[in-house]
Amino acid sequence: MSPIESEGRTVAEAVEAALRQSGLRRDQVEITVTDEGSTGFMGLGAKPAKVRLTEKRWGPDSPAPAPSAPARAPQRPPIRNSAPRPAERRPERQPERRPEPRPEPRRQERAPEPRAPQRAAEPARAPRPERREAPSTPVSAAEAAEICAKAQKLVVELLQLMAIAAPAATASWDADLERVKISVESQDASLLVGRDGRVLESLQFLTTLMLSRGGGSPLAVQVDALSYWEKREQAVLAEARLAVETVKATGKPVRMEPMDSSMRRLVHRTLTANADVVTASEGEGPWRKLVIRPRAR
């Protein structure tokens, strides 16, 4: 059989693919790793692992198995004298002496301990209030233009370091959510979206840190490509409007699916002026979700 070459994300996956293709077992082949592959940086530049499979040959040139040692003849047990031995006289067994039982000491009865006074029932704890955003000072047009220019320059430099082909970025100021929106255009834009927008999240996280490095209050930055975040926000707002209608019809709170802080902030800001409902967040970490309740009259 001619050698078989196979690829996979890891060496183990490449070996399994080659064995399935050859139909042989692992002990019937020899494996040669031609390329161990690499995971790349942030999902970019990943290379698959490559292996070569060769079938083992069992011909006349193979070394013969070592001769086994000759088996030893079984030894006969020694012949014992079958004459009966005189019965041995065993010593008489003396009866065991049991210790006399000792009288148990009298237990002193303890006086009953005074009972502790019963504590009054504690009132039910009130739910933890939602942390409201402190009112921020409005950003002037000149400050917004300066912030957008810095953010645009940082994103382009990061894209060049990531070897993205011909990166171009457009920055604008979103006054409603007080954030910088950056739209990236490139022929490699699909690589930036990655799996569930994780590459975009990492990119905007680095941009936010570098933009806030000079001091001052941190600013929110959204880096978008192929309108990924725009479509996500529209879907979340549609779910929030449907939840508002459910709260108005039933008078009961509605809990939405867990979402990140930027999406919760978007719903909070959008429903702030709604006269029928109020919003709050509950839960911790990745399970933190948004709750829409009817407004008290």
Low-confidence stretches: 62-71, 119-135
Q: Work out the number of β strands.
A: 9
Helix content: 25-40%
Biggest β-sheet, characterized?
3 strands, antiparallel
The total of helices stands at 6
Summing up helix and strand content along with how strands pair, one would put the structural category as alpha+beta
Radius of gyration: 40 Å
Q: What is the chain-wise order of helices and strands?
A: EHEEHEEHHEHEHEE
Percentage of β-strand residues: 15-25%
Summarize the structure in words.
- The chain is of the alpha+beta class.
- Helix content is 29%, strand content 18%.
- The chain is built from 6 helices and 9 strands, in the order βαββαββααβαβαββ.
- The strands form 3 sheets. A 3-stranded antiparallel β-sheet has the order 1-3-2, with helices on one face. A 3-stranded mixed β-sheet has the order 4-5-6, sandwiched between helices. A 3-stranded antiparallel β-sheet has the order 7-9-8.
- α2 (141-161) packs across α4 (198-211) and α5 (228-250) packs across α6 (261-271).
- The longest helix has 23 residues, at 228-250.
- The protein starts with a strand and ends with a strand.
